[in-house]
Amino acid sequence: MKENTAAFWEEIKKKWPGKFWDQERFIFENIRPGDRIFVGTGCGEPQYLVRSLLEFAKNQPKAFIDAELINIVTLGVAPYTDEKFKDNFRLNSFFIGESVRKAVNRAEADYTPIFLSALPGLIRSGRIPLDVALIQTTPPDLDGNMNLGVSVDIVRAVVEKAGIVIVQPNSFMPAVDGDGWICMDDVDYIIARDEPLLEYIEDVPGEVALKIGGYVSRIVEDGSTIQVGYGSIPNAIVSGLSLKRHLGVHTELFGDGIARLMEAGAVDNSQKSLHPGKSIATFCMGKKKTFDFLRGNRSVEFRSIDYTNNPLIIAKNRKMTAINSALEVDLTGQATSESLGHRFYSGIGGQADFMRGAALAHDGKTILALPSTAQSAEPDGSAGASSRGPVVSRIVPFLREGAAVTLTRGDIHYVVTEYGIAYLHGKSIRERAMDLISIAHPGFRHWLIEEAKRLHLIYPDQAFIPGIKGEYPEDLEVRKTTRAGLPLLIRPIKISDEPMLKEFFYSLSNESMYQRFISARRDIPHEVLQKFVAVDYFTKMVLVAVLEDDERQSICGIGQYGMNSDMYTADVALVVRDDCQKKGVAGELLSYLTYLAKRQGLLGFTAEVLVGNDPVFRLFKKMGFDVSKRNEQGVFEMKAMFR
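RESULT FIELD:
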């Protein structure tokens, strides 16, 4: 590249002679005691400048003291938090990464909680004064233009306001369209040095992460504009979206997964309502392959973080879908991504901005995706196998004392774990608690039920089947289309289905209720409903036929059987909502119940059927049962044996 030739740099030095010094120490001698020094973000961290600054401090420890190092997040080893530099530097970070977590929790470094979207404004206003900035750019062209590359975020505002701007041009840095262009006149000193950028290596998604990704892909619609956080869970989520079509991107972080979706054609930004044809982000954390993908890619723009993370800007994207993770979520629907009790872990970041913006957007969705469990760590936040504690539930009765509420109860639409999807939006505390318990790890569900009772979040007599007998058999979910063309999700009933079941029963006509219960009852209280939803799946099966309309689901039919004392037959019952009768719903339910009963080793069904209810007998005969019946005072005792 011409930028790397000696002749090129000589030409640049002739045009801007005051920007270049032969030795870095002459530049660092401008730093004064108490100065605030900004260091570029993540993969954009100017490693050579940081090493040179530390070497200068090591060799001349009295040159400056009590300097404050400020950054969003570092991927480096953060040696400036070492004991030997305690008189020279104190770190103040807006987001706690792994390399500084221990120092923050030992009060050896500072954390400033803030919405990242607010930072440029605070810097420009002088509320966060900056004396020195260490940043990294592309090499300049002959007109002196440089690009901030993978880290625009708050750096643009830093360049405008910092007293001294020291730049490390690096040919490994890709130029990215958008707000990242600066010029020689914007900076004070140039120290050119080529070196590979820091890489953010995400964990390879495991089985749990892939299952979560599969659930999230059910929620994300074609044509959505997505925002995704970083880590193994979002990485798995992104890989699960590869078969989607016409996705758009408006995000804070541009990661490896987004680049792969663009390469696969799942992201084309063609249906975006804001910046169509462009993926919008503010910084990149990924591997070299992604940096190469960004180089000169006109379909990507990096904008300042006060633009990308502005909830009012985010909300302009139709079908905006924000996908983030959390450390814990409680049964009322509030979540923390920042701390575990009193222990600081990460930061506010951009999560709250994007979840609020997506909630405000037309047809917007907010998704919180997290594993159901975590392995607890020691209180100082240290990592490593030796510091790992017992497995704990990430779904908890209430957030721990001292935990920050990153996401309020109003901002979360969906919570997803490897055990399913809980839709919280517009639901009561009791409904939320039951929905979240149903997707918690089975080993913690009984504890959550008992705690929810104690805290008066759910019914005090809430029934629950502990152990494997009460675990929801997700593998039995099937999709069917009836002979009348009605699309159904047929699945076992869940403990969280009680509100939907109540709505179903009260929608039935008097005649349908009479046929089902062989009585004139109209009331279906909680005591009756929970007998349907708290199921011992070893001896009983209750199937619901569900109609889906976007976020709303409704039950159009119920089929159930419970094993008789003879242990080779089961008592069966069916009921279909009046507006769905004669459309094949009962046939689909009975067919699937029969399959499950045969698989369990049963030989047939029994049922009590009112005299005159001829459609029931016709249905069983049509489906090939050997049917016999006996009239007992206006009620037929039917026996339907499998052939």
